[in-house]
DNA sequence: AAATGTGATCTAGATCACATTT
DNA sequence: AAATGTGATCTAGATCACATTT
C-alpha cells in the first residue's frame, strides 16, 4: 500500500513530484496552492497511508501528529457524550483536507467509513509551510468556511426536519459528494451503515430503516443489496428532503 | 450613535486611531492582526453602526456589502426553509467578526438579538486588506475554525440531547459567552426570547417554557422577570446540560 | 452472526387551547 | 397586547422484540 518513493533530487527540478501530478487531491485540494518547489519540499516527508473501513484515523482528545488529504474514500467525524450517545458531525470526501489546524489535540474522532487512502504530512513541517505560504493558509481558510457552511446547513436538518426529510437529505448529500468529478451521482454505494446514518441524523436505526423503506415504496429511490442506491429523479429526492 | 470622527491625518502617525484604541473588539478581535498604519487605513472607511434589537443586519440571499466587528450585543444567525421552519445556527458576541469572507451573497440571515453596535467595513477595501495581510487572514481563519468547532458542538446538542439538556446547554452557552471579559457569568439577561430559544434548540416555545420551569424547580437556575437568569452553581448547570 | 427490516407498544415533545404575566 | 406559562391531548419517533437478509 505504501507505493511511494520518497526520493526527489532537490537541484533545479521545477516539475511537480510524480506522485503529486498523479494525485486526485491536487485539483481541488489544498496542495493546488503550492509551487512545484513547495510540493517537492512537502513530498519529502509525506506518506501515502491506507485506513481500513472502521479503523480510527484520530481519536477525540488525542494529540495531533499530522494532517492529510483524502485521496479516496469517506471519513466520518463524530463526537461522543460521556454516556455513549454519539453524533456524526460531518463527512469528508476526496479531496478534503483532514485535521484541525492550530490545535494541539483533536476535538472529535475521525474514522474511516469506507476504505480510505490519504496523503499524510507530519505536523511540524506542514505548519511551517502554512505559516510561510499565505496562499496555502487561504486554501485552508476556504475549506474551513466551506465546512462551516455545511455544518450550519446540517444544523437545520437536525433541528427542524422530519425523519423522512432527514433520510432524504442524507441520500442527497451522498449523491452530491461521493464523486468529486460529478455534481450528482444517480447510483452509488452507501458509505455508512444504518447505525452510522442514524448517528448522523439524530435518529435510531429502526427509524432510518423504516424511512428508507418508505422512500423505496414511493419510488424516490431503488435499493439493491442494502447498500446500493439508485436515484431515478434528482428533483424528487430534493423535494423529499426539503432541500431548497 | 455615530460618534465617530473619520478624519485621521495620514502623515507619520504611528499610534492607532483613537476609536481603535478604545475599541473593545481590538483585544480579541481580528483588528489585533493589524499594524497602526493599517488600522488608520481601515479606519478611514469604517463606520460605527447601531442595530436595534430585532432589526436585520443581512438577509439570506442578499449581496454582501460589507463586514463588521461586533462591539456590543448579540447577533443571531438563522436559516429558514421554504415553508417557514426556522433554525438559528449560531450566535455571535463581541468581539466576533461578522460576514462570510469570499462569498458574494449571504447564505443565512443575521439579525440583532439585542441592541447591537458594530464597526463596519466596506467589502472591497476590507477584502483588499485581507489579501495583503496574511496575519489578518490568519485571524479570520482562526475565527472560522472556532465557529466550526462551536457549530459541531451544537450539532451534538441538536441531534442527541433531550429537551431538558438542550435548554440547560443553551443557558450554559450564554453564561460562557455573554461577557467577553469573564469565562462564566452567574447572572445575565437572556438575549433571546422563548421563541428564539426554541428555534435555536429545535424545540417549540411550550417545551422551552416547561423545561425552564423544571430547571427552576430543581434550583439549577433562578429566573426573575422572564429574562433575568441567575446560576447559583455552574457545575449543576453543566451536569443538567450533559456538557462534558 | 452481524446488519437490516418490521410489528407492537410506549413516551418525549408537539399541538391545541387558554390562563397569566409584563 | 405581546410574551410567557401550563393543562389536556395527540403523534412522530423511540423502544422492545423478533423475523429476515447478506
From TrEMBL, chains A, B:
Keyword Phosphoprotein set for record: no
Signal peptide: none
Keywords (A to Z) from UniProt: DNA-binding, Transcription, Transcription regulation
GO molecular function annotations of the record: DNA binding; DNA-binding transcription factor activity
Cyclic nucleotide-binding domain boundaries: 30-147
GO CC annotation terms, alphabetical: cytosol
All residue ranges annotated as the HTH crp-type domain in the record: 161-235
Family annotation (Gene3D superfamilies): Jelly Rolls, Winged helix-like DNA-binding domain superfamily/Winged helix DNA-binding domain
A Pfam family that the UniProt record links to this protein: cNMP_binding
Name listed for the protein in its UniProt record: Crp/Fnr family transcriptional regulator
Amino acid at each position: 500500500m505504501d507505493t511511494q518513493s520518497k526520493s526527489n533530487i532537490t537541484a533545479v527540478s521545477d516539475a511537480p513530484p510524480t506522485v503529486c501530478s498523479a494525485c486526485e487531491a491536487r485539483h481541488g485540494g489544498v496542495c493546488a496552492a503550492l509551487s512545484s518547489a513547495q510540493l517537492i519540499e512537502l513530498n519529502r516527508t509525506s506518506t501515502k497511508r491506507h485506513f481500513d473501513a472502521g479503523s480510527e484515523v484520530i481519536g477525540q482528545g488525542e494529540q495531533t501528529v499530522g494532517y492529510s488529504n483524502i485521496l479516496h474514500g469517506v471519513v466520518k467525524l463524530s463526537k461522543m457524550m460521556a454516556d455513549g450517545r454519539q453524533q456524526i458531525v460531518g463527512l469528508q470526501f476526496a479531496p478534503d483536507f483532514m485535521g484541525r489546524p492550530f490545535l494541539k489535540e483533536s476535538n472529535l474522532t475521525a474514522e474511516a467509513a469506507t476504505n480510505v487512502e490519504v496523503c499524510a504530512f507530519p505536523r511540524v513541517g506542514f505548519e511551517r509551510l502554512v505559516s510561510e505560504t499565505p496562499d496555502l493558509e487561504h486554501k485552508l481558510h476556504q475549506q474551513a468556511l466551506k465546512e462551516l457552511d455545511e455544518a450550519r446547513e446540517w444544523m437545520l436538518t437536525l433541528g427542524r426536519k422530519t425523519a423522512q426529510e432527514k433520510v432524504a437529505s442524507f441520500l442527497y448529500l451522498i449523491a452530491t459528494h461521493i464523486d468529486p468529478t460529478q455534481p450528482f451521482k444517480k447510483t452509488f454505494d452507501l458509505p455508512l451503515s444504518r447505525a452510522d446514518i442514524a448517528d448522523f441524523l439524530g435518529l435510531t436505526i429502526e427509524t432510518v430503516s423504516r424511512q428508507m423503506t418508505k422512500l423505496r415504496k414511493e419510488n424516490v429511490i431503488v435499493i439493491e443489496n442494502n447498500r446500493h442506491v439508485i436515484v431515478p429523479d434528482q428533483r424528487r429526492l430534493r423535494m423529499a428532503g426539503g432541500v431548497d
